Predict the structure of Sequence-specific DNA binding RNA polymerase II transcription factor.
Amino acid sequence: MSRVRLPAKSRRYPNPGYLGPSSHTTFFNHLAGNDQHQVSNGLQGGTTERSGASGCAVTEDKIEQGAAFLNQIRRSAQLTAWKSLTETWIGYHSWRKLGDVVSSLFALGYHEQLGHPSVTPTFLRELRFVAYSRTYSADKNCSIFLGRPPRMLKRYCPTADLPEVWEPDEHFSYRADTRVHGICASLKEDVLDLQRDNQDIRMQKAAHIRFATETAWAAIPKTLRLDKPLSSYNQRHVEIDFLVSTKLNFAHVKFLLELTITPRVSNPRVELLRTSADMLSLVVEAIVLKQRLANSGTSLVWKVAYYGLAAAGVLCLALLYNTFDRATPDATPSRSIRDLSVLVAEIETGALLQPEDPNYALLFAAARTMKNLLDRLITNRFAAQLDVPATVEAAGQRPLRYSDEELITWDTYGLQDFDPEFWLNLSEHPFLMSPEGELLQ
Protein backbone atom coordinates (compact mmCIF):
# COMPACT_ATOMS: atom_id res chain seq x y z
CA MET A 1 0.00 0.00 0.00
CA SER A 2 1.45 3.35 -1.01
CA ARG A 3 1.81 5.99 1.65
CA VAL A 4 -0.14 9.21 1.21
CA ARG A 5 2.31 12.10 1.19
CA LEU A 6 1.53 15.23 3.13
CA PRO A 7 1.78 18.70 1.62
CA ALA A 8 5.25 20.17 1.77
CA LYS A 9 4.01 23.16 3.75
CA SER A 10 4.42 22.69 7.50
CA ARG A 11 1.38 22.91 9.76
CA ARG A 12 1.12 23.70 13.44
CA TYR A 13 -1.18 22.42 16.12
CA PRO A 14 -3.30 25.05 17.86
CA ASN A 15 -1.30 26.23 20.84
CA PRO A 16 -2.98 24.79 23.98
CA GLY A 17 -0.38 26.27 26.29
CA TYR A 18 2.37 24.34 27.98
CA LEU A 19 0.86 21.02 29.00
CA GLY A 20 3.91 19.66 30.78
CA PRO A 21 5.54 16.26 30.12
CA SER A 22 2.16 14.69 29.37
CA SER A 23 1.79 16.74 26.18
CA HIS A 24 2.62 14.79 23.03
CA THR A 25 4.27 17.86 21.46
CA THR A 26 6.40 18.48 24.52
CA PHE A 27 7.23 14.78 24.76
CA PHE A 28 8.69 14.60 21.28
CA ASN A 29 10.44 17.98 21.47
CA HIS A 30 12.24 16.87 24.64
CA LEU A 31 13.76 13.79 23.04
CA ALA A 32 17.52 13.73 23.35
CA GLY A 33 19.69 13.73 20.25
CA ASN A 34 20.98 10.22 20.97
CA ASP A 35 17.45 8.84 21.10
CA GLN A 36 16.56 10.40 17.80
CA HIS A 37 19.73 9.04 16.25
CA GLN A 38 18.79 5.49 17.32
CA VAL A 39 15.32 5.89 15.89
CA SER A 40 16.61 7.28 12.61
CA ASN A 41 18.83 4.25 12.04
CA GLY A 42 15.73 2.12 11.52
CA LEU A 43 14.31 4.34 8.79
CA GLN A 44 14.99 3.96 5.09
CA GLY A 45 16.31 7.17 3.66
CA GLY A 46 16.07 8.82 7.11
CA THR A 47 18.37 11.48 8.45
CA THR A 48 20.23 11.70 11.75
CA GLU A 49 19.97 15.44 11.96
CA ARG A 50 17.30 17.14 13.97
CA SER A 51 14.62 18.94 12.03
CA GLY A 52 15.09 22.62 11.63
CA ALA A 53 11.40 23.36 12.04
CA SER A 54 10.71 25.37 15.13
CA GLY A 55 8.02 24.79 17.77
CA CYS A 56 5.71 21.87 17.10
CA ALA A 57 5.62 22.03 13.30
CA VAL A 58 4.35 18.82 11.70
CA THR A 59 6.25 17.47 8.71
CA GLU A 60 6.35 14.09 7.03
CA ASP A 61 9.81 13.42 8.47
CA LYS A 62 8.60 14.04 12.00
CA ILE A 63 5.65 11.70 11.51
CA GLU A 64 7.95 8.96 10.25
CA GLN A 65 10.33 9.60 13.13
CA GLY A 66 7.53 9.47 15.69
CA ALA A 67 6.09 6.27 14.22
CA ALA A 68 9.49 4.58 14.36
CA PHE A 69 9.99 5.74 17.93
CA LEU A 70 6.60 4.35 19.01
CA ASN A 71 7.42 1.09 17.28
CA GLN A 72 10.67 0.91 19.23
CA ILE A 73 8.79 1.57 22.46
CA ARG A 74 6.28 -1.15 21.65
CA ARG A 75 9.09 -3.69 21.27
CA SER A 76 11.21 -2.71 24.25
CA ALA A 77 9.22 -0.89 26.93
CA GLN A 78 7.57 -2.65 29.87
CA LEU A 79 3.81 -2.85 29.44
CA THR A 80 3.02 -2.07 33.09
CA ALA A 81 5.02 1.14 33.07
CA TRP A 82 3.31 2.43 29.94
CA LYS A 83 -0.10 1.35 31.25
CA SER A 84 0.48 3.50 34.34
CA LEU A 85 1.63 6.42 32.19
CA THR A 86 -1.45 6.12 29.99
CA GLU A 87 -3.72 6.14 33.05
CA THR A 88 -2.00 9.32 34.23
CA TRP A 89 -2.62 10.99 30.88
CA ILE A 90 -6.27 9.97 30.90
CA GLY A 91 -6.75 11.42 34.38
CA TYR A 92 -5.06 14.65 33.36
CA HIS A 93 -7.11 15.11 30.20
CA SER A 94 -10.36 14.42 32.09
CA TRP A 95 -9.45 17.14 34.56
CA ARG A 96 -8.58 19.49 31.70
CA LYS A 97 -11.85 18.80 29.88
CA LEU A 98 -13.80 19.67 33.01
CA GLY A 99 -11.84 22.91 33.14
CA ASP A 100 -12.83 23.60 29.54
CA VAL A 101 -16.50 23.20 30.46
CA VAL A 102 -16.11 25.54 33.44
CA SER A 103 -14.38 28.13 31.27
CA SER A 104 -17.12 27.88 28.65
CA LEU A 105 -19.84 28.48 31.25
CA PHE A 106 -17.98 31.51 32.53
CA ALA A 107 -17.47 32.82 29.00
CA LEU A 108 -21.18 32.43 28.23
CA GLY A 109 -22.07 34.15 31.48
CA TYR A 110 -24.36 31.39 32.77
CA HIS A 111 -22.79 31.72 36.22
CA GLU A 112 -24.32 35.21 36.46
CA GLN A 113 -27.52 35.09 34.43
CA LEU A 114 -29.45 32.55 32.39
CA GLY A 115 -31.12 35.01 30.04
CA HIS A 116 -33.82 37.59 30.55
CA PRO A 117 -37.24 35.96 31.07
CA SER A 118 -38.85 38.27 28.50
CA VAL A 119 -36.63 37.10 25.64
CA THR A 120 -35.33 33.68 26.77
CA PRO A 121 -37.75 30.71 26.74
CA THR A 122 -38.30 28.96 30.04
CA PHE A 123 -37.03 25.61 28.78
CA LEU A 124 -33.77 27.24 27.63
CA ARG A 125 -33.23 28.90 31.02
CA GLU A 126 -33.90 25.57 32.70
CA LEU A 127 -31.46 23.80 30.39
CA ARG A 128 -28.75 26.34 31.15
CA PHE A 129 -29.37 26.01 34.87
CA VAL A 130 -29.08 22.21 34.70
CA ALA A 131 -25.81 22.54 32.78
CA TYR A 132 -24.51 24.94 35.43
CA SER A 133 -25.60 22.71 38.35
CA ARG A 134 -24.08 19.58 36.86
CA THR A 135 -20.78 21.32 36.14
CA TYR A 136 -20.72 22.91 39.59
CA SER A 137 -21.30 19.52 41.23
CA ALA A 138 -18.70 17.78 39.07
CA ASP A 139 -16.17 20.47 39.93
CA LYS A 140 -16.62 19.90 43.68
CA ASN A 141 -16.62 16.11 43.50
CA CYS A 142 -13.57 15.89 41.24
CA SER A 143 -11.72 18.44 43.36
CA ILE A 144 -12.33 16.41 46.51
CA PHE A 145 -11.56 13.10 44.81
CA LEU A 146 -8.29 14.32 43.25
CA GLY A 147 -7.25 16.62 46.09
CA ARG A 148 -7.21 19.74 43.91
CA PRO A 149 -8.73 23.20 44.48
CA PRO A 150 -12.21 23.83 43.06
CA ARG A 151 -12.57 26.15 40.10
CA MET A 152 -16.22 27.21 40.52
CA LEU A 153 -16.94 29.15 43.71
CA LYS A 154 -20.53 30.09 44.45
CA ARG A 155 -19.62 33.49 45.86
CA TYR A 156 -18.75 34.45 42.29
CA CYS A 157 -21.80 32.71 40.80
CA PRO A 158 -25.15 34.44 41.40
CA THR A 159 -26.81 31.53 39.60
CA ALA A 160 -26.04 29.38 42.64
CA ASP A 161 -28.44 31.51 44.72
CA LEU A 162 -31.50 30.57 42.66
CA PRO A 163 -33.97 28.73 44.95
CA GLU A 164 -34.61 25.02 44.54
CA VAL A 165 -38.07 23.90 45.67
CA TRP A 166 -39.28 20.32 46.06
CA GLU A 167 -42.82 19.29 45.21
CA PRO A 168 -44.52 17.31 48.02
CA ASP A 169 -45.39 14.44 45.67
CA GLU A 170 -42.28 14.65 43.51
CA HIS A 171 -40.96 11.42 42.00
CA PHE A 172 -37.66 10.44 40.51
CA SER A 173 -36.39 12.40 37.53
CA TYR A 174 -32.98 13.45 36.31
CA ARG A 175 -33.94 16.99 37.26
CA ALA A 176 -34.39 15.81 40.85
CA ASP A 177 -30.99 14.11 40.69
CA THR A 178 -29.45 17.37 39.46
CA ARG A 179 -31.10 19.24 42.33
CA VAL A 180 -29.62 16.85 44.90
CA HIS A 181 -26.15 17.14 43.39
CA GLY A 182 -26.36 20.94 43.39
CA ILE A 183 -27.49 21.13 47.03
CA CYS A 184 -24.78 18.76 48.25
CA ALA A 185 -22.09 20.47 46.16
CA SER A 186 -22.97 23.81 47.77
CA LEU A 187 -22.70 22.27 51.25
CA LYS A 188 -19.39 20.63 50.36
CA GLU A 189 -17.98 23.98 49.29
CA ASP A 190 -18.94 25.39 52.69
CA VAL A 191 -17.10 22.51 54.34
CA LEU A 192 -14.00 23.08 52.23
CA ASP A 193 -13.94 26.73 53.32
CA LEU A 194 -13.69 25.66 56.97
CA GLN A 195 -10.09 24.60 56.51
CA ARG A 196 -9.00 28.24 56.41
CA ASP A 197 -10.49 29.11 59.83
CA ASN A 198 -9.15 28.51 63.31
CA GLN A 199 -10.62 25.79 65.51
CA ASP A 200 -13.12 27.97 67.40
CA ILE A 201 -14.60 29.60 64.30
CA ARG A 202 -14.50 26.26 62.53
CA MET A 203 -16.66 24.62 65.19
CA GLN A 204 -19.20 27.46 65.08
CA LYS A 205 -19.52 27.32 61.30
CA ALA A 206 -19.64 23.51 61.42
CA ALA A 207 -22.75 23.67 63.59
CA HIS A 208 -24.49 25.87 61.00
CA ILE A 209 -23.47 23.55 58.15
CA ARG A 210 -24.68 20.52 60.09
CA PHE A 211 -28.06 22.19 60.64
CA ALA A 212 -28.27 23.19 56.98
CA THR A 213 -27.49 19.62 55.93
CA GLU A 214 -30.20 18.18 58.16
CA THR A 215 -32.68 20.78 56.94
CA ALA A 216 -31.91 20.04 53.29
CA TRP A 217 -32.29 16.29 53.90
CA ALA A 218 -35.62 16.77 55.68
CA ALA A 219 -36.90 18.91 52.79
CA ILE A 220 -36.55 16.03 50.33
CA PRO A 221 -39.86 14.19 49.80
CA LYS A 222 -40.10 10.86 51.58
CA THR A 223 -40.49 9.08 48.27
CA LEU A 224 -36.96 10.17 47.35
CA ARG A 225 -35.27 9.25 50.64
CA LEU A 226 -33.70 5.92 51.52
CA ASP A 227 -34.82 4.93 55.02
CA LYS A 228 -34.93 1.12 54.89
CA PRO A 229 -32.88 -1.76 53.41
CA LEU A 230 -32.48 -1.83 49.64
CA SER A 231 -34.02 -5.28 49.37
CA SER A 232 -37.37 -3.90 50.58
CA TYR A 233 -37.76 -1.54 47.60
CA ASN A 234 -39.55 -2.67 44.45
CA GLN A 235 -39.18 0.46 42.29
CA ARG A 236 -37.37 0.59 39.00
CA HIS A 237 -33.66 -0.09 39.17
CA VAL A 238 -32.77 3.45 38.20
CA GLU A 239 -34.94 4.82 41.01
CA ILE A 240 -33.30 2.58 43.61
CA ASP A 241 -29.90 3.72 42.38
CA PHE A 242 -31.05 7.32 42.80
CA LEU A 243 -32.05 6.62 46.41
CA VAL A 244 -28.59 5.19 47.09
CA SER A 245 -26.84 8.13 45.41
CA THR A 246 -28.90 10.67 47.32
CA LYS A 247 -28.22 9.17 50.72
CA LEU A 248 -24.52 8.69 49.98
CA ASN A 249 -24.24 12.28 48.79
CA PHE A 250 -25.71 13.70 52.00
CA ALA A 251 -23.74 11.24 54.13
CA HIS A 252 -20.59 12.39 52.35
CA VAL A 253 -21.32 15.99 53.38
CA LYS A 254 -21.52 14.88 57.02
CA PHE A 255 -18.38 12.78 56.56
CA LEU A 256 -16.39 15.72 55.18
CA LEU A 257 -17.68 17.98 57.95
CA GLU A 258 -16.69 15.59 60.74
CA LEU A 259 -13.36 14.92 59.06
CA THR A 260 -12.60 18.65 58.90
CA ILE A 261 -13.25 19.30 62.59
CA THR A 262 -11.40 16.16 63.76
CA PRO A 263 -7.90 17.09 64.98
CA ARG A 264 -6.45 13.63 64.35
CA VAL A 265 -7.93 11.09 61.96
CA SER A 266 -6.14 8.28 63.83
CA ASN A 267 -8.31 9.19 66.84
CA PRO A 268 -11.66 9.94 65.18
CA ARG A 269 -14.72 11.37 66.84
CA VAL A 270 -17.69 9.09 67.49
CA GLU A 271 -19.79 10.89 64.87
CA LEU A 272 -17.09 10.40 62.22
CA LEU A 273 -16.94 6.68 63.00
CA ARG A 274 -20.71 6.36 62.85
CA THR A 275 -20.96 8.22 59.54
CA SER A 276 -18.10 6.22 58.02
CA ALA A 277 -19.65 2.93 59.12
CA ASP A 278 -23.04 3.89 57.65
CA MET A 279 -21.48 4.99 54.36
CA LEU A 280 -19.45 1.81 53.97
CA SER A 281 -22.40 -0.41 54.88
CA LEU A 282 -24.58 1.28 52.26
CA VAL A 283 -21.86 0.94 49.62
CA VAL A 284 -21.43 -2.75 50.44
CA GLU A 285 -25.19 -3.27 50.34
CA ALA A 286 -25.28 -1.65 46.91
CA ILE A 287 -22.45 -3.91 45.73
CA VAL A 288 -24.19 -7.05 46.93
CA LEU A 289 -27.49 -5.98 45.30
CA LYS A 290 -25.90 -4.45 42.21
CA GLN A 291 -28.22 -6.43 39.94
CA ARG A 292 -31.06 -4.25 41.26
CA LEU A 293 -29.32 -0.97 40.42
CA ALA A 294 -29.08 0.98 37.17
CA ASN A 295 -26.96 4.06 36.56
CA SER A 296 -29.00 7.12 37.56
CA GLY A 297 -26.15 9.57 37.07
CA THR A 298 -23.10 7.94 38.65
CA SER A 299 -21.88 4.37 38.25
CA LEU A 300 -21.51 1.87 41.07
CA VAL A 301 -17.72 1.83 40.62
CA TRP A 302 -17.64 5.59 41.13
CA LYS A 303 -19.73 5.25 44.30
CA VAL A 304 -17.25 2.69 45.64
CA ALA A 305 -14.19 4.75 44.72
CA TYR A 306 -15.57 8.10 45.90
CA TYR A 307 -17.67 7.22 48.94
CA GLY A 308 -16.62 3.70 49.88
CA LEU A 309 -12.86 4.20 49.95
CA ALA A 310 -13.16 7.39 52.01
CA ALA A 311 -15.23 5.64 54.67
CA ALA A 312 -13.05 2.52 54.55
CA GLY A 313 -9.94 4.64 55.14
CA VAL A 314 -11.27 6.05 58.40
CA LEU A 315 -12.42 2.63 59.60
CA CYS A 316 -9.08 1.04 58.72
CA LEU A 317 -7.27 3.63 60.82
CA ALA A 318 -9.69 3.01 63.69
CA LEU A 319 -8.98 -0.73 63.47
CA LEU A 320 -5.26 -0.14 63.22
CA TYR A 321 -5.10 2.14 66.27
CA ASN A 322 -7.95 0.42 68.14
CA THR A 323 -9.85 3.68 68.62
CA PHE A 324 -13.39 2.34 68.25
CA ASP A 325 -15.74 3.65 70.91
CA ARG A 326 -17.26 0.61 72.61
CA ALA A 327 -20.31 2.68 73.58
CA THR A 328 -21.26 3.19 69.93
CA PRO A 329 -23.30 0.21 68.70
CA ASP A 330 -23.57 1.65 65.18
CA ALA A 331 -19.81 1.53 64.61
CA THR A 332 -18.18 -1.63 65.92
CA PRO A 333 -14.99 -3.44 64.86
CA SER A 334 -16.95 -6.55 63.87
CA ARG A 335 -19.29 -4.59 61.57
CA SER A 336 -16.36 -2.81 59.95
CA ILE A 337 -14.45 -6.05 59.41
CA ARG A 338 -17.48 -7.67 57.78
CA ASP A 339 -18.02 -4.76 55.40
CA LEU A 340 -14.32 -4.44 54.56
CA SER A 341 -14.11 -8.18 53.86
CA VAL A 342 -17.02 -8.03 51.40
CA LEU A 343 -15.50 -5.01 49.67
CA VAL A 344 -12.12 -6.74 49.31
CA ALA A 345 -13.71 -9.93 47.98
CA GLU A 346 -15.81 -8.09 45.38
CA ILE A 347 -12.78 -6.21 44.06
CA GLU A 348 -10.29 -9.09 44.08
CA THR A 349 -12.60 -11.60 42.41
CA GLY A 350 -13.47 -9.20 39.60
CA ALA A 351 -17.17 -9.20 40.46
CA LEU A 352 -17.20 -5.40 40.80
CA LEU A 353 -14.91 -4.28 37.98
CA GLN A 354 -12.36 -5.49 35.46
CA PRO A 355 -8.78 -4.29 34.80
CA GLU A 356 -9.90 -2.18 31.86
CA ASP A 357 -12.50 -0.29 33.93
CA PRO A 358 -11.87 3.22 35.30
CA ASN A 359 -10.24 3.50 38.74
CA TYR A 360 -9.26 -0.19 38.69
CA ALA A 361 -5.69 0.50 39.81
CA LEU A 362 -6.89 2.65 42.71
CA LEU A 363 -9.48 0.15 43.93
CA PHE A 364 -7.20 -2.86 43.53
CA ALA A 365 -4.38 -1.20 45.48
CA ALA A 366 -6.81 -0.17 48.23
CA ALA A 367 -8.23 -3.70 48.40
CA ARG A 368 -4.73 -5.12 48.77
CA THR A 369 -4.04 -2.77 51.68
CA MET A 370 -7.35 -3.60 53.38
CA LYS A 371 -6.71 -7.31 52.95
CA ASN A 372 -3.28 -7.01 54.52
CA LEU A 373 -4.75 -5.13 57.47
CA LEU A 374 -7.56 -7.65 57.98
CA ASP A 375 -5.18 -10.60 57.74
CA ARG A 376 -2.92 -9.14 60.40
CA LEU A 377 -5.79 -8.19 62.70
CA ILE A 378 -7.48 -11.58 62.54
CA THR A 379 -4.21 -13.50 62.80
CA ASN A 380 -3.12 -11.51 65.84
CA ARG A 381 -6.49 -12.02 67.57
CA PHE A 382 -6.33 -15.79 67.20
CA ALA A 383 -2.67 -15.85 68.17
CA ALA A 384 -3.47 -13.89 71.33
CA GLN A 385 -6.13 -16.43 72.32
CA LEU A 386 -3.75 -19.36 71.87
CA ASP A 387 -0.88 -17.69 73.73
CA VAL A 388 -2.30 -16.48 77.04
CA PRO A 389 0.35 -14.79 79.20
CA ALA A 390 1.19 -16.51 82.44
CA THR A 391 0.59 -13.30 84.35
CA VAL A 392 -3.08 -13.41 83.43
CA GLU A 393 -3.50 -16.91 84.84
CA ALA A 394 -1.52 -15.97 87.93
CA ALA A 395 -3.83 -13.03 88.55
CA GLY A 396 -6.82 -15.34 88.55
CA GLN A 397 -8.37 -13.87 85.41
CA ARG A 398 -10.27 -16.03 82.97
CA PRO A 399 -8.21 -16.71 79.83
CA LEU A 400 -9.82 -16.56 76.40
CA ARG A 401 -8.80 -20.14 75.69
CA TYR A 402 -11.29 -22.73 76.96
CA SER A 403 -10.58 -26.07 78.60
CA ASP A 404 -11.14 -29.45 76.96
CA GLU A 405 -14.03 -30.16 79.35
CA GLU A 406 -15.86 -27.08 78.10
CA LEU A 407 -15.34 -27.91 74.44
CA ILE A 408 -15.90 -31.68 74.46
CA THR A 409 -19.62 -31.30 73.77
CA TRP A 410 -18.99 -29.55 70.46
CA ASP A 411 -16.00 -31.72 69.60
CA THR A 412 -17.83 -35.07 69.79
CA TYR A 413 -21.32 -34.14 68.70
CA GLY A 414 -20.89 -36.08 65.46
CA LEU A 415 -22.84 -33.84 63.08
CA GLN A 416 -21.00 -34.69 59.91
CA ASP A 417 -23.58 -33.03 57.67
CA PHE A 418 -23.62 -29.73 59.63
CA ASP A 419 -27.42 -29.73 59.70
CA PRO A 420 -29.47 -26.98 61.42
CA GLU A 421 -29.06 -28.66 64.80
CA PHE A 422 -25.30 -28.26 64.49
CA TRP A 423 -25.59 -24.50 64.03
CA LEU A 424 -28.04 -24.26 66.92
CA ASN A 425 -25.57 -25.96 69.24
CA LEU A 426 -22.61 -24.01 67.88
CA SER A 427 -24.33 -20.74 68.79
CA GLU A 428 -24.08 -21.81 72.45
CA HIS A 429 -20.31 -22.25 72.29
CA PRO A 430 -18.57 -20.46 75.22
CA PHE A 431 -16.48 -18.41 72.82
CA LEU A 432 -19.58 -17.13 71.00
CA MET A 433 -21.44 -16.47 74.26
CA SER A 434 -18.73 -14.07 75.48
CA PRO A 435 -19.32 -10.33 75.16
CA GLU A 436 -17.78 -8.77 72.07
CA GLY A 437 -15.74 -6.35 74.15
CA GLU A 438 -14.06 -9.25 75.98
CA LEU A 439 -13.06 -10.89 72.69
CA LEU A 440 -11.42 -7.68 71.49
CA GLN A 441 -9.19 -7.23 74.52
